Amino acid sequence: MRAPARRSPPDVTLRRARATTRRVARTFSLACRLLPATVRDDVYRLYLVFRTLDDAVDEGEPDAAARVAAVERWARGAAPDSPEAELLAGIAARHPLPRAALVDFCRGMRDDLERRPILTEADFDAYCYRVAGTVGLTVAAVLGTTAPAEREAAALGMAMQRTNILRDLREDDAHGRRYLPTAGSSGSDTSGPPGVRGDGDGLVRAQIARADAHYEEGMAGIPKLRVGRRAVRAAAAMYREILREIERRDYGRSPGRAVVPRRRKLTLVARHALLAGA
After folding, report:
1. In this structure, are residues 75 and 67 in contact, taking their beta carbons and an 8 Å threshold?
2. What is the predicted pLDDT for the residue at 175?
3. Which residue range forms the structural domain that includes residue 146?
4. Quick one: which of 267, 124, 148, 87 has its CA closest to 207?
5. pTM, rounded to two decimals
6. Residues 93, 110, 232, 31: what is their CA dihedral angle, to the nearest 10 degrees?
7. pLDDT above 90 for 152
8. Lower CB density within 10 Å: C or N end of the chain?
9. Contacting residues for 244 by C-beta, under 8 A, at least 6 apart
10. CA 187 to CA 19: how far, in whole Å?
11. Could you tell me which of 54, 63, 61 has the C-alpha nearest to residue 25?
12. Is residue 169 very low, low, confident or very high in pLDDT (cuts 50, 70, 90)?
């Protein structure tokens, strides 16, 4: 008799990565379904690394600084000595991860840990690059490119970060987090987040315009991706639609979070996936 084929042991971390993405990043998860199988699981793994570190920092977990430091040590060439660093090392065995970008991501996490204030537009740009432009660079490295696309990949990540911040103004304000630059904002009422309190919607309008400019720059680089063009274009379209929803909701003055209905997301996925070609 032929011996039964041995089953590979279950990849518990991959299961967790998939479940985490589906539970807390519904828009990103929807786009991931369009990724080729050759890269999809490593994108899930990347998301788990970035998400767990970000959550540890945001929630003030006692070991957050140590976990961030462990990833930075690995990115600078040390052996992996934490679950996140080990996961990155496994991905790096298959894809050329940008170590410098990961060092910059860790710096962004330290900015959050230290509650470093964002006073100017330059501060805000730097923050968005560190915590999200670096993610764009890392995902692009996993997908591969046919020409240099670092600028575009970083811009798309920064666009999505600005979008998240604009969507979550009220929630972040309730937790004492202010991300929009404060220099030059007007109005005497400081009882709420910019754009919601008495300084009008000028600041939010300006930030939406800057996010849109980043989307234009980032999406111009999608044809340079070797694989995953449909997924990235769909993700960008769905995230960008959040900006339009913020505008429909009177630039954050309407109560509740700006959410894009699932049916509209699916329409955007279908439309933009067809445009991307692969």
Report:
1. no
2. 77
3. 25-276
4. 124
5. 0.87
6. 90
7. yes
8. N
9. none
10. 44
11. 54
12. confident
Whether 46 is in a domain gets the answer yes
Number of domains in the chain: 1
Residue 10 falls inside a structural domain: no
pLDDT of residue 171: 83
Q: Which residues contact 11 (CB under 8 A, 6 or more apart)?
A: none
Q: Rounded to whole angstroms, how far apart are CA atoms 239 and 214? A: 12
**Domain for residue 134, yes or no?**
yes
Say how far apart CA 214 and CA 135 lie, in whole Å: 15
Amino acid at 237: A
**Residue 145 bridge partners (DSSP):** 225
- CB–CB of 110/71 below 8 Å? no
C-alpha pair distances (Å), 154 with each of 45, 108, 230: 19, 14, 18
Express each pLDDT in 57-99 by its tens digit. Answer: 999 999 999 999 999 999 999 999 999 999 999 999 999 999 9
Residue 268 has pLDDT above 90, yes or no: no
Q: What is the CATH number of the domain that holds 192?
A: 1.10.600.10
Alpha helices in 79-132 (DSSP H): 83-92, 99-113, 121-128
Q: Please check whether residue 144 lies inside any domain of the structure.
A: yes
State the pLDDT confidence band at 272, using cuts at 50, 70 and 90: low
List the beta bridge partners of residue 225.
Answer: 145
Give backbone dihedrals phi and psi of 187, rounded to 5 degrees, phi first. 100, 145
Give the Cα separation of 151 and 137 in Å (integer).
8
Exposed e or buried b per residue across 20-31, where buried means at least 16 C-beta atoms within 10 angstroms of its C-beta? bbeeeeebbbbb
